[in-house]
Amino acid sequence: MAKILIVEDDESIVINLTEYLSDEGYEVEWAAGQKEAIEKIIKKKYDLILLDISLKDGNGFAVCAAVKENTSTPVIFLTASDDEYSVVTGLDMGAYDYVIKPFRPRELLSRIRNVLRRSGESIPVVKLDNICIDTVKGLVTKNGEEIYLSALEYRLLLVFINNKGIVLSRSRLIEEIWSIAGEYVNDNTLTVYIKRLREKIEDDPQNPKIIKTIRGLGYKVGE
């Protein structure tokens, strides 16, 4: 499970973001200011730091400098400031990404996952009802029991969990699994593999609750 430190002095943002990221399988801690953040960074290891630039007792640039001096932890800046100087300064200091507030949680989640992949850190275990997907070990379990998926079924499941809450068209899904299949994938092939995946992960494949059909549009996992 990846550990994320949020350095932010707006408690309402922290509460909402902590709840959202915890639901996505991350372990989240909070530091409200520069001094507290630096103390935590020196004492503990984190996989990612979400860092606001404007802090009550200092600024995010000082925290970022401490991060780079003491660790190799990737940083994503969160700030209401979108001026060119702040963007360039943050990136020049070695930040992996820069997100302007207010941000959409799903977009931030996508950026977090991309940064963790780029930095080589672990991606968290993802839970879908009674299904648990360990994307590091490539292990899928249902009610604690391992489910054996083919490479293409597993790839299809990863596409869904990496796009939670997003409606994916059939053409998009076909494009995503093409390289794994190693051969031409058509609409009928996709139908077969979605059926097989549902049979393995759904309690009632005829009335799926995880992989939902959105009529006329495609499929969706999660809200």
From TrEMBL:
The modification 4-aspartylphosphate is found at D52. InterPro entries: CheY-like_superfamily, OmpR/PhoB-type_DNA-bd, Sig_transdc_resp-reg_receiver, WalR-like, WH-like_DNA-bd_sf. GO terms for molecular function: phosphorelay response regulator activity; transcription cis-regulatory region binding. SMART domains: REC, Trans_reg_C. GO terms for biological process: regulation of DNA-templated transcription. GO terms for cellular component: cytosol; protein-DNA complex. Keywords: DNA-binding, Phosphoprotein, Transcription, Transcription regulation. It holds the Pfam family Trans_reg_C. It comes from the Bacteria. May play the central regulatory role in sporulation. It may be an element of the effector pathway responsible for the activation of sporulation genes in response to nutritional stress. Spo0A may act in concert with spo0H (a sigma factor) to control the expression of some genes that are critical to the sporulation process. This is Stage 0 sporulation protein A homolog. It comes from Acetivibrio saccincola. The gene is regX4.
